[in-house]
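Figure 6 in text form: structure in, sequence out.
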């Protein structure tokens, strides 16, 4: 059982509105045992998440201070799986709704890395190739908070060889896509994230299904709680606002029960 406890306070801009993606998804591989999502005095409007994975919530506040609490208990039922024995799919056999995960996106310029992927990983296939890309990212990229920001792209991280989970996932997804295997960015919670915060992992399409991969190595698939998924970080931010927002307080605690 994974327990999640998030509290945050923001001072919003004049619109007093925020779009939030914080709740654990009702998705295969995880069961929400109980949860509570509260924003004091807010008018809440829920809607489906990107690709109908999870859900988002519009919060409209009577004043500019937003105080939020989200607590949940989630039973993760997906097993740990070795990637090495998994097969990839012929391009013509990949479902059409997943083709966007083969293409470059705002933060994953995968088309710029096809020659590198071919040279570095072209001798491998399927899950073995994905595992080699994961291991390359873990060994070549150094986790360093503060080095990147919300605008940093895969190409910039590849050159700098430093970043946080968001950057690890962008490089990983970009190299997997450059190898003609679908990969998507996943917003998540994990119990071993250091420092404690929202987390980013990836999913890859192998054996005709999605498999979770954490390029940072912090979390295993059987302890990751998925929030939502998209092409890159632009699709699944934990909060969006139509104007400025000032952080007052943020705490993300994820523990095993």
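Output sequence:
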């Amino acid at each position: 059982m994974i327990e999640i406890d998030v509290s945050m306070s923001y001072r919003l801009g004049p619109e007093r509105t925020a779009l939030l993606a914080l709740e654990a998804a009702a998705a295969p591989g995880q069961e929400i045992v109980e949860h509570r999502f509260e924003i004091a005095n807010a008018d809440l409007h829920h809607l489906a998440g990107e690709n109908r994975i999870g859900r988002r919530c519009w919060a409209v506040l009577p004043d500019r201070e937003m105080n939020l609490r989200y607590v949940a208990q989630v039973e993760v039922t997906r097993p740990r799986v070795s990637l090495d024995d998994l097969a990839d799919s012929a391009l013509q056999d990949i479902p059409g709704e997943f083709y966007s995960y083969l293409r470059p996106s705002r933060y994953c310029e995968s088309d710029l890395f096809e020659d590198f992927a071919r040279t570095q990983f072209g001798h491998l296939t399927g899950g073995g190739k994905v595992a080699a890309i994961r291991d390359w990212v873990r060994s070549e990229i150094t986790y360093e908070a503060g080095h990147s920001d919300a605008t940093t792209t895969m190409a910039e991280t590849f050159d700098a060889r430093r970043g946080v989970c968001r950057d690890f996932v962008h490089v990983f997804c970009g190299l997997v896509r450059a190898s003609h295997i679908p990969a998507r960015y996943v917003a998540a919670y994990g119990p071993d994230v250091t420092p404690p915060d929202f987390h980013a992992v990836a999913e890859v399409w192998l054996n005709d299904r999605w498999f979770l991969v954490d390029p940072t190595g912090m979390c295993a698939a059987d302890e990751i709680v998925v929030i939502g998924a998209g092409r890159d970080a632009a699709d699944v931010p934990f909060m969006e606002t139509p104007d400025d927002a000032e952080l007052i307080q943020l705490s993300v605690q994820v523990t095993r029960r």
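Caption detail: Residues 90 and 252 are 40 Å apart (CA to CA).
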